Amino acid sequence: MNEKQRIGALEAMLFAHGEPVELERLADALHAEPIQTQILLEKLQKQYDERDSGMVLLNFEDRWQMATRPYYGEVVKRILDTRRNAPLSPAALEVLAVIAYNQPVSRSFIEQVRGVDSSSTVAKLLDKGLIEEAGRLDLPGKPVSFRVTDTFLRVFGLGSLADLPPLHEEEPSGPEPDAEEPQDKTVAEQLEIRP
To answer: Who has greater pLDDT, 29 or 181?
Structure first.
């Protein structure tokens, strides 16, 4: 196969699979080296972006997925004639934030942070595929832990958890106040404002 055919084969595999696929798996199917496959995927991704295609190629660290470009989401919903999904409740968003920033976490950790029972919210997020079980923690009782899924990353437009916004804004780093300067000056005096 030439390069154009290999890119076409990758496109066909990703379209048929629907879910994120590991780079190694794509390379094996293509009978190519992972680095060559990565380059071809990046070329396909660039082609979609350059022509404002209705499709977009998402990269989740070592996994790739073909998806609908978010811009066209509303028209796709209309043609599929699906019922509108209910927006996530504030409680669901809180639970997602606790899990995303602290994963893997147990249900009791989530409840400790939120201060309320979260079992029904966790169950709903599991049903929606936004979180998944991540094994058991090495704590008394061996509680089940949870983590966010690739679906969570896709829904919120993230490539990885590193793309999450920072929890606390960085403090502006200005000049340190001079230790010898008396701190009991008025604001006007400190700013050297003259009447």
So the answer is: 29
